[in-house]
């Protein structure tokens, strides 16, 4: 019995999870989050509010900016559903990393910091231009049956291709760095990792204690915090990063992540349709150039930065300092977008175009079929890229990126 318990502990708590399992669970949780809390799983709207709060703190009058009214900017991070959910995600990812002994401070070079900031700013601007990131405009957006998510996804696919071309340039390739064997201290590493599971359990107790000690906290905020924790735990355990999903597909034909995402969206679509039918309003936004251009910029930015919105969140909790700057860049980029939204961006790129819901325009069955065909198209494209990757390996034409 003891060995069985140890085996399950290793598989569930200590080791990384099978990516498809983690992503399908994320799809199920995301659908339930939508149905019980009433909002979609999204993060960059909250990052935009962080930027607005900073400007407010230094005395900037925010009343003229209509974008902040669209994203319902009010209160604080502790009184907003998205706010506590994002905090829960950070907590879940950190505790998952500690359980798996995956936390280790890694300091980037100045060049990598600059790359993280630039890529993060481009991605952050793009996500808010499209009104969502790889979550609300893709993974949790496509199951909402909103046409704008298709535009964003196609833009992201082409954007990641452009981003790869940029990062394969001589400037980004850089030179390999060799570390002397004497600089590696195995004993220090072992001592550092052995204490991590204990810190993880301590963190989990503190997290639960904070929730239980706040009876005045509204139930919807508590629920959002718990869902956020689960999201963060799963993205770390499954190493779920949309950057690698598209980048690796273009580079070497690796399909594991993208195919897992397709399965997660398919499962989620079934759940969200039930809740939409019961009256929970879907998130449907402008199907215009803003979504396509936003996806394009997002795709370029995440490849330059090295991580998407979910990717930088869990990696930053693993101690990878590079991704702290990616997150900072995201906030800066989102802030720039809301500052320029009323200076022609909304008027020309979003306002003239409809908020197109597949369900409202075609009905449930056609919406299911169309969304299913779109997901099938992504799956088949992944198969084609996989075949192309095998061909490159066979013919030894694989592109090489030095880090």
Automatic annotation (TrEMBL):
Membrane topology: Multi-pass membrane protein
Residue ranges crossing the lipid bilayer per the database entry: 21-43, 83-101, 113-139, 145-164, 198-214, 226-246, 258-279, 291-314, 321-341, 361-382
Keyword Transferase tagged: no
InterPro entries: Sulf_transp_TsuA/YedE, YedE-like
Keywords: Cell inner membrane, Cell membrane, Membrane, Transmembrane, Transmembrane helix, Transport
Pfam families: Sulf_transp
Family: Belongs to the TsuA/YedE (TC 9.B.102) family.
NCBIfam families for this protein: selen_YedE_FdhT
Annotated protein name in UniProt: Sulphur transport domain-containing protein
Organism: Carboxydothermus ferrireducens DSM 11255
């Amino acid at each position: 019995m003891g060995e069985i318990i140890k085996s399950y502990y290793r598989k569930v708590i200590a080791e990384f999870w099978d990516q498809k399992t983690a992503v399908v669970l994320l799809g199920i949780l995301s659908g339930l989050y939508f149905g019980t809390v009433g909002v979609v799983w999204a993060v960059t709207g909250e990052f935009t509010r962080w930027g607005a709060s900073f400007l407010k703190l230094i005395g900037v009058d925010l009343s003229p900016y209509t974008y902040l009214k669209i994203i319902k900017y009010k209160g604080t991070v502790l009184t907003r559903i998205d706010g506590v959910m994002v905090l829960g995600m950070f907590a879940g990812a950190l505790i998952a990393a500690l359980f798996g002994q995956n936390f280790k401070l890694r300091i980037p070079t100045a060049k990598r910091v600059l790359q993280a900031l630039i890529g993060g700013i481009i991605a952050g601007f793009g996500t808010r231009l499209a009104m969502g990131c790889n979550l609300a405009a893709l993974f949790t957006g496509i199951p909402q049956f909103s046409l704008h998510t298709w535009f964003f996804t196609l833009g992201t696919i082409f954007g990641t291709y452009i981003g790869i071309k940029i990062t394969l340039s001589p400037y980004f390739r850089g030179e390999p760095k060799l570390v002397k064997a004497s600089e590696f201290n195995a004993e220090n590493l072992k001592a550092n990792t052995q204490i991590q599971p204990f810190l993880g359990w301590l963190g989990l107790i503190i997290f639960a204690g904070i929730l239980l000690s706040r009876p005045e906290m509204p139930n919807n905020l508590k629920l959002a915090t718990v869902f956020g924790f689960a999201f963060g735990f799963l993205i770390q355990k499954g190493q779920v990063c949309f950057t690698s999903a598209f980048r690796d597909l273009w580079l070497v034909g690796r399909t594991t992540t993208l195919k897992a995402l397709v399965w997660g969206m398919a499962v989620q679509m079934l759940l969200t349709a039930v809740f939409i039918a019961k009256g929970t309003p879907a998130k449907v936004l402008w199907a215009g150039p803003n979504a396509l251009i936003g996806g394009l910029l997002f795709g370029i930015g995440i490849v330059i930065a090295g991580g998407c919105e979910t990717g930088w969140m869990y990696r930053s909790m693993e101690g990878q300092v590079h991704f702290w700057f990616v997150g900072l860049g995201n906030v800066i980029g989102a802030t720039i977008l809301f500052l320029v939204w009323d200076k022609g961006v909304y008027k020309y790129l979003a306002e003239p175009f409809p908020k197109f819901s597949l369900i409202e325009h075609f009905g449930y069955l056609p919406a299911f079929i169309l969304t299913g065909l779109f997901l099938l198209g992504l799956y088949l494209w992944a198969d084609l890229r996989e075949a192309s990757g095998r061909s490159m390996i066979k013919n030894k034409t694989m592109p090489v990126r030095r880090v």
